[in-house]
Amino acid sequence: MLDLLPVLRVLGILLMVFALAMGLPLGVSWFQDDGVWRVYPLSMAVTLGLGLLLWLGLRRHNRELLPRHGVMLVTLVWVLLPLCSMLPLMLAMHQVGRPISFTHAYFEAVSGLTTTGSTVLSGLDSLPVSVNVWRTFLQWVGGMGILILAVAVLPLLGVGGSQLFRAEAAGPVKDTKLTPRMTETAKGLWGVYAFFSVTCALAYWWGGMRPLDALMHMFTTVSLGGLSPYDASFGQFQSPLLEAIAVLFMLAASCNFALYFVAVRKRSTAGLWRDPELRATLAVLIGGGLLVSVLLWVKGAYAPLQALRYGMFNVVSIATTTGYATADFLLWPVFVPVFMLLLSGVATSAGSTGCGIKMVRVLILLKQARREMTRLVHPRAVQPVRLGNAVVDHPVIFSVLAFMLVYGGTVIGLSMLLLLTDLDPVTAFTAVLASVNCTGPGMGAVGPASNFSVLTDFQIWVCTLAMLLGRLEFLSVMALLAPSFWRR
Amino acid sequence: MKIIIIGAGRVGESVADSLVSEHNDITVIDTSAARLRDLESRFDLRGVVGSGIDPAVLAEAGARDTDLLIACAAEDETNLVCCKLAQRLYGIPTRIARVRTSGFADQELLLGPEGFAVDRIICPEESLTRYIVRLVEYPEAMQVRDFAGGRACLVSVRARAGAPMVSHSIGELRQILPGVDMRLVAIYRRFQEEPDRFIACDGTTRVEPGDEVFVLAASEHIAQVLAALHRRDGQSERPVRRIMIAGGGEVGLRLARQLAREKARFHLKVIEELPERCVALASELPSEVLVLQGDTTDEDLLAGESVEETDLFLALTEDDEDNIMSCLLAKRMGARRVLALINRRSYADLMHGTQIDIALSPAQAMLGELLAHVRQGDVQAVHSLRRGVAEALEIVARGDRKSSRVVGRKVSELSLPPEVHMGLIVRGLPLPGEQAPEAGESQVIIPHSTTVIESNDHVVFFLPHKRLVRDVEKLFRVGALFF
Known about the structure:
The complex is a heterodimer of chains A (488) and B (483).
Chain A: H1 5-21, H2 23-32, H3 39-57, H4 67-95, H5 102-113, H6 129-144, H7 146-153, H8 161-168, H9 182-206, H10 211-222, H11 240-253, H12 257-266, H13 270-274, H14 276-298, H15 304-319, H16 335-346, H17 359-377, E1 381-382, E2 386-387, E3 390-391, H18 394-420, H19 425-436, H20 457-471, H21 475-481, H22 483-486
Antiparallel strand pairs in A: 2-3
Helix pairs in contact in A: 1-3, 1-4, 2-6, 3-4, 4-5, 4-6, 4-8, 4-21, 5-6, 5-20, 6-10, 7-8, 7-9, 9-10, 9-11, 9-12, 11-15, 14-15, 14-16, 15-16, 18-19, 18-20, 19-20
Chain B: E1 2-6, H1 10-20, E2 25-30, H2 33-42, E3 46-49, H3 55-60, E4 68-71, H4 76-90, E5 94-98, H5 108-111, E6 120-122, H6 124-137, E7 141-147, E8 152-158, H7 173-176, E9 182-191, E10 194-199, E11 212-218, H8 222-230, E12 242-246, H9 250-261, E13 267-272, H10 275-284, E14 290-293, H11 299-304, E15 312-315, H12 320-333, E16 338-341, H13 345-351, E17 358-360, H14 362-374, E18 379-385, E19 390-396, E20 421-427, E21 443-445, E22 458-463, H15 469-476
Parallel strand pairs in B: 1-2, 1-4, 2-3, 4-5, 5-6, 12-13, 12-15, 13-14, 15-16, 16-17
Antiparallel strand pairs in B: 7-8, 8-11, 9-10, 9-11, 18-19, 19-22, 20-21, 20-22
Helix pairs in contact in B: 1-14, 6-9, 6-14
């Protein structure tokens, strides 16, 4: 366990930096005068104090981070940061006289940081505005990855940067260094993220949102999070223009940010459109949206244009793992919600802010399957799996297969666990799926019109675990549980 | 002409072989003394042991008064540096380098006098690929050679019984294919128990089944000419679709890549023996190309991949024996047409007229480009035919009636040797350095005894024997008055 000490030291630094993030809701609270501003300095002090304690107490253990440390740090950060970020939530809710339990607060914080967007709170419209800002801001921070941000802005993580990057970045191929130095890569990715954020906020503002609404929705749009400060979610605005803007930015955020980074560097978008993953992602999202729109129209749910508006927005929102809703899609033909939830598992790219299986893994598996079919006809054929012009190495294919197995195993295992608590099958399965894919709303009792507060505490913990596993892509968390990880 | 050849590998050897017979002073530089001794014993040339990038070695080889340097060592680097040395230190006027890396072609900055100073790049693999691609386009032909920048072609084809033009005399051909400008320049007839023999052609010569016929025609008429000589009456055209390439070496890769560019036109399979090479091939080629790992002479593999439905089977490995065997095997199993790459001349002769439809010598495909530089006069293109015995030559008439012995004269007035046939004339091509004119401005003329040759006419000859080259070159040489 002594091995853990240098990791905890870095964690201390991260906590101290994270405490600064609470300045945003503090400022909002102060200027909007929503009456809960006192909770933020308190939470900040606690977080800062904890961080300082770890850092000062362990400052002699400033060893360089090894790969195993990266895995530990990532998991620790994703477990501990929600603890700190739930403090303002709990205190503020207590202050306005609607106290929430530890379980619910932790769930809310994890749902925020993992960009899931499920909530256990109701009456969102009447919450203090700074609480809503804090919830949505958490999603924005978690969207691109906390540690990737840390690598970008904290030079003290040093060489270990690439280990952290690997452990946190989503997708099967993680060796693609875009720049010689990992810090530059992380900076570039966050630069792209920041650019999208600013344009998205401006677009919302231009489209008619109040500045604060624009800010909060920007936080949850570009991070594909989907928390909303309103009970009616995005339906609050009833504005086709805003919905179109949201669809546009959700589509942009569901593609690999590294591609944008490269496109900016080369000053050419040619490589962008040639990327097979980007094409597949956009094709699936837009094609799925059109399919659902046609279905809604044919089944008589809406007039053609309305069908396109609702179909496109909700499909893109759910499938990109965002989770906004403009309609209660459980009232639509049953094919639609199931289709959207299944899409949410696959329709985002690696290196985007979305979660789930990732399109690149699906492509690799499809190509692998096609290769097996060719082999039946031509037993001697040599046919490497290719994405674009790059050959996918065998270890990557195996890791994708392993990932799929773990993904399926996790979904089934956690669903069974929920069934054990007498939840109905549809709710159980979709709650786990929506949590693992970091989507948000499921079906049944956790559909878009209700929220996760109907679940018992145990069920909430299961969903919390599912969200963390899904965000960190299972294996790095599970590695910690393996005895061999601790054997030296 | 004094020539230095760097590198005595396979390419160097065939270059030396073809140049040595044309009264050139040849010096070959190579690091292997044994290899040079072998060449010296077989050809009339001098060997210098050493590295081509060593100035002292070049000096010893007589670089100071050399006219032509041909760098064809195995590595591109050596060849490029040799050319630079030859220009800087010795001022050798013409420098040719073998460069495999494709990025160098048409890079004036790299190849110009300030760069590596290479006048011309040759890449045997690329020449061979181009050559085979033409054969894929015209599957009936045994060879297709371009003249005048692709405006005219020389094709050779095996006459087949039942085809419209076969069993008719040459004089009747005009009626059979009206409106097609073509000239039948040579016939090689097959006889029992002896190699094919050249038959001089005049209006009364009959085309017999089994003859190898050489025809010159404008490139747009090639398909018609081939059909008239090879396809039975009424038989519809069957384009090449399924191609099997045995051997995924450099040539196989280039060919597959080029053929795969026209998506959906060809159905390509490449067989390669080395597993690592297979992976490299499969990664480089588009995914429509099927790469198979196995022995090219493996009957089960060929049967499993339905060789009987193949339109064209190309054996392109490095190994002559493998190529011959896999071609024979494929032919017996039902492949429609087979082509074997055969390096050794004796094998090529041996295989001629057997079941192998086309026996291709890699050297032949490349040498034309080189020979054009060695020849005197304004020779534009040279194609070595019949394993170097015969030759087709494109030469430009320059000057006027006073300075030239051909310009302004009728064909019947020229003092050509009797065996030499003037094939055709391409008129109206741009002068070197001029912008290319609009397409269609140049015309292909079939010369008659009364045709008058003009300046800047590109005249294409078929020479049944190489020794006639000199006479033609001499005839076209411009007199001193021209300058």
